[in-house]
Amino acid sequence: ACVGNDTGMLQVAAACGTASLGLFGGSVPLNQDTRIFPLSPPGNVQHGENRMAEISVDMVIKSLRSLDLP
């Protein structure tokens, strides 16, 4: 699995067939690729300035586990 923010490398990983957890704190989550699973900060406002810091390591680990990847 690949974990990354909204960058080209996240897109490359997904294009190569790798299930990817996309961290979207500063941008709108992508939904064009079924291999990118978006993770946004908690709350009603899902993106904005300085929101990436609100995505905790625990949130990332829990999200990865919930993907049930091999």
Structure notes:
Helix content is 26%, strand content 17%. With 70 residues, the protein is α/β, with parallel strands linked by helices. A three-stranded parallel β-sheet has the order 1-2-3, sandwiched between helices. It is globular, with a radius of gyration of 11 Å.
Mean pLDDT: 87
Shape: globular
Which oligomeric form is depicted?
single chain
Counting DSSP E segments of at least 2 residues, the number of strands comes to 3
- Helix share bin: 25-40%
Rg of Cα set: 11 Å
Largest sheet: 3 strands, parallel
- The secondary structure category is alpha/beta
Proportion of beta-strand residues: 15-25%
Strand order in the sheet with the most strands: 1-2-3
Order of helices and strands: EHEEH
In DSSP terms (H or I, runs of 4 or more residues), the helix count works out at: 2
Query: Could you list the spans in which at least 5 consecutive residues all have pLDDT below 50?
Result: none
Distance between the termini: 9 Å
